[in-house]
Fold this protein.
Amino acid sequence: MVAYCATKAFDMVFAEALWCELKPKGVDVLGLILGETDTPALRRLRYERGLARSLDEPVKGAETPQDVVNDAIAHLEKGPIRLANKTMRWGLRFLYPFSRNFVVGLMSKASEKIMGKD
């Protein structure tokens, strides 16, 4: 989980830096922070960990890949970062008053619930 989170943090900072550097040149940059996206890989992982009854079971609350793409295109000029999941955008509004440590703990528990223990 550490390497996964570190790469996500790098992606976000990299997109922000590119946006700052390229925006004056008319280049749009948008880094997407994905929440759960209903892909075959996620369905397989959930099935293997006993979190789904079949590989065909849709992931409840997950965005479809098409929804992620549509949202990204609609917000491309508003970069540098976009949360590509409605649930994440909604929930983030309630996390601002809390400490970073508290939020990281919540995210860890939520990830464990969604992905299962390793």
In short: The longest strand covers residues 31-33. Residues 68 and 74 are 10 Å apart (CA to CA).
